[in-house]
Amino acid sequence: MIEKQLQATIQVYDSVEELPNSVQNLMKVAVSARETAYAPYSKFQVGAALLLEDGTVVKGSNQENASYPSGLCAERTAIYAAGANYPELKIKVLAITASSIKHEVLEPIAPCGACRQAIAEYEQKQNQPIHIYFMGKKGKVIHVKSLLDILPLAFDNKFL
Ligand code: THU
To answer: Of 14, 39, 79, 93, which is least packed with CB atoms within 10 Å of its CB?
Structure first.
């Protein structure tokens, strides 16, 4: 038996104002996307904005359903929209923000496991990592330079 350590580096920004301008702008789009969330059940609103290689921005927000599992997270709403509408364009950056009607969300909200798996597929498809920035409603913002930093030992199509 050997023991291996898995390591990832994250960058933590104190607030959105500390981000590079282009990312601040993308985060503003994510905030506007968050306002389109349809979240009558969880009251938890998530917005996502993707920056494509030609400068196009694609938005997504969580869309819930009375049949709970039929709903979809903001990140997958956005990434599937990009895949469907701009299949040839690489995704460079993903910005995510979350808030709640029930309480203040002040810590960065990372994408759920299913969204990580979906984002991993697109990194694989485009053979290029996606920078991800995530925050709550305000406060600290976490940056990872690739989805794989938050999904070590990912399953992908090379195993098929
Ligand atoms: N949600 C997202 O949109 N993204 C995530 O990564 C985590 C959860 C949504 C799904 C659901 O509408 C609500 O937040 C509560 O789970």
So the answer is: 14
